[in-house]
Amino acid sequence: MFKGKFIDNLPKIYGTYTGGFLVFIILMAIAEQAGMTAKTIGILFVAFTVCIYAFIGWMSRTVQVDAYYVAGRSVPTVFNGMATAADWMSGASFVAMAGGIYFGGYTYMAFLIGWTGGYILVSSLLAPYLRKFGCYTVPDFIGTRYGGNLARFCAVVVLTLASFTYVTAQINATGTIAARALSIPFELGVWVGLISILLCSMLGGMRAVTWTQVAQYIVLIIAYLLPIFWISNKGGYGFFPHLMLGEEVARLGELEAQFGLVKNAAADVKAAGVPGGLKSISLPHSEVPAGGMAAWKFISLVICMMVGTASLPHILMRYFTTPSVKAARKSVAWSLFFIALLYTSAPMLATLSKLSLMDPNLATGIIGKDISAVMSIDWVQAWTAQKQAFIADFNGDGVLQLNEWFMRGDVVVLSTPEVAGLPYVISGLVAAGGMAAAMSTADGLILAIANALSHDVYYKIIDPKADVRKRLLVARGLLIVIGAAGAYIASMRITSILGAVAWAFDFAMSGLFFPLVLGVWWKRATRQGAIAGMITGLASGTAYLIYVYPKFMGNPAWLGIDHLRFGIIGASVCLVVMVVVSLMTPAPDSSTQKMIDEVRIPSGKTILGKQH
Amino acid sequence: MSNKEKHWEKTKGNMFLTLALWFFFGYIIFMFGESLNSASFLGYPLAYYMCAQGSIIAFVIILFWSANRQEKIDEECGFAERGEDD
Questions:
Q1: B14 touches chain A (CB under 8 A)
Q2: What is the rounded (10 degree) CA torsion for A606, A310, A146, A586?
Q3: What pLDDT, in 10s, does the model give residues A476-498?
Q4: How far apart are alpha carbons A300 and A412 in whole angstroms?
Q5: What letter does residue A423 receive in the DSSP assignment?
Q6: Alpha carbon of A256 to those of A364, A370, A379: distances in Å?
Q7: Residue A212 has what pLDDT?
Q8: How many Å apart are CA A235 and CA A356, to the nearest integer?
Q9: B20 min Cα distance to partner chain A (Å)
Q10: Which has the minimum average pLDDT: A206-220, A271-285, A451-465?
Q11: Which pLDDT score is estimated for A564?
């Protein structure tokens, strides 16, 4: 219909959209001056942006299989990079990353390295080859390369487990933000979030998700960068914070020495009645912890996050949508460029936010001041009332010490504009940005699971004769079912026992990394080897997780490999088993060998047809 | 050696070189984080800076550089795609 023209006009369309969004921000700022309440501004921000995403979702509806599964393979490089960046940066990245750095300092920043460096593995080992293959889903590659329904099915299981671990956290985040911005109960917020997510993806599948993700990226990056630059300039820290916060980082070191980094005993924290999930600063901001074990803990976390990145299907499938192999490769580079804009800013936000609370010379500083004075500050009252912040006077001297101020990590991003005294319109913008980040990731994940189940399980295994209409009906039905299952689990508020987002990376690397990589890079890899690798990798990783996680068996971690790093065990087992079993079984037949040769060169037809 | 084999050898070479750089910026420097931090860059302690920005920027540059290199290899061996440019 409008597709050809639409692709050519993309820069114009999204340029207008960005301009329109900036005008909307200015209008809201004027409305705030005219006396509009903070609550109304919050509602307008979230409602306005979600309506735009829904409109894009409606415009991108489709009845074609290749448009539904891979956006018709027509997404230009740079736009696919933006969409991937939105797909990648979850609600957790947006609201929790700066908070993580705020509390964890250098040790937490292993996540930054892990969540960016993984893209080099994606680009050099996988993305261009999977694009040449022409698959619709990740199990589609496994199923065709190794042959047989069992291999395909194993890949679907790993994909579902990893993506579902991730998706509940995202729906949880949309629920939290929707609840706060729209002033509705959390349980309702989760379902509002889910409906918004489905509006973007249901009618147009991958095509709709692609174009909404681009729109969501624009909102989230403006919402993240604007406050940082504003605060930095307002506070006189430098007009370009990324290059100019050296002194502030050094000052944080001085303040840490002055106040002392005290780790509270768990019993004291409990006795004082600190609400769950709240933390105090006990780790240095920029100092590297001493010793080989600390370095290994840093590096092992980096390994898990990098290898996990390269195995997460909702990221890999974004590179199936580019027009060519060359474009897939370039698109990975653009993805990381757009991701880096936010990731390199998070430490700056953490620095500014920490300094504004810790420096007693600043008007905003609260550490080292009288507790009674601190308790009378508006934002402190608001956040403590919501149990997001807490003061416990352990030594009873009436002065707030560093270890006596407790806060939830999310509050760092959400409260910083308020603490720094920025107008409320910025807080509304940040809520819209957080919503965009959580929605875009949830969309990608739900679509990855639903596509694998509809294409690989339903069409390829159960009913290969199904017509297009029926296939797309099943795909959409599954989208609703999976979304509803995720929302239901999120609304029960049991996500804390489902564990960390990091688990998704560990599950994915345990079962999928080596079967994918060796599928391209080692011709000798056989079906039996891949199946054995996927099963034993996932099983051993999961078994180790149960063995080591404090809420399950709680055994001491072996070599510092704790529940965040169990993928190291799973992936190692997977590699060894896959190689040994492959060498014990006969080499793949000549047609498979030929297929691999074809995958390795960019030119020529894709292995799987345009419609399959 | 056939053209295809030559292309694959060069592709592998590019992959290993890329991963060597990746390994340096992602792992090697953080093995020496403690001593690195006594140096400084733009006023930041060096290991902190590499973590916050340096390595991430290096990754972006490596990706573009490696993609361009691979494109040249494809051209050279005659396996570049035709007529479906972005």
A1: yes
A2: 120
A3: 999 999 999 988 888 876 655 45
A4: 27
A5: -
A6: 17, 19, 24
A7: 93
A8: 9
A9: 11
A10: A271-285
A11: 87
Please measure the distance between the N-terminal and C-terminal CA atoms of chain A and give it in whole angstroms: 22
- Spatial CA neighbour of A150 closest among A578, A591, A534: A534
Strand A405-407 and strand A389-391: pairing?
antiparallel
If residue A389 lies in a helix (H) or strand (E), which one and from where to where?
strand A389-391
Burial of A342 per CB tally in 10 Å (0-12, 13-18, 19+): buried
Tokens of A48: 């306005």
Q: What is the DSSP string of A278-332?
A: -B---S-SSPPPPSHHHHHHHHHHHHHHHHHHTT-HHHHGGGGSSSSHHHHHHHH
Q: B51 vs A113: CB contact, 8 Å cut-off?
A: yes
The Cα–Cα gap between A587 and A594 comes to: 13
- Whether chain A has a CB inside 8 Å of the CB on B17: the answer is no
Show residues of chain A in contact with B25, CB under 8 Å: 117
Question: How is residue A227 written in tokens?
Answer: 């406050």
Query: Mutate which of A111, A285, A326 to test chain B, going by most B C-beta atoms within 10 A?
Result: A326
CB pairs under 8 A between A and B: 159
Residue that is written with structure tokens 């409109």 in the block = A55
Burial (CB count within 10 angstroms: exposed 0-12, middle 13-18, buried 19+), residue A460: buried
Q: How many angstroms separate the CA atoms of B39 and B29, rounded?
A: 13
SS3 A407: strand
Longest dimension (CA), chain B: 53
In single-letter form, the type of residue at position A25 comes to I
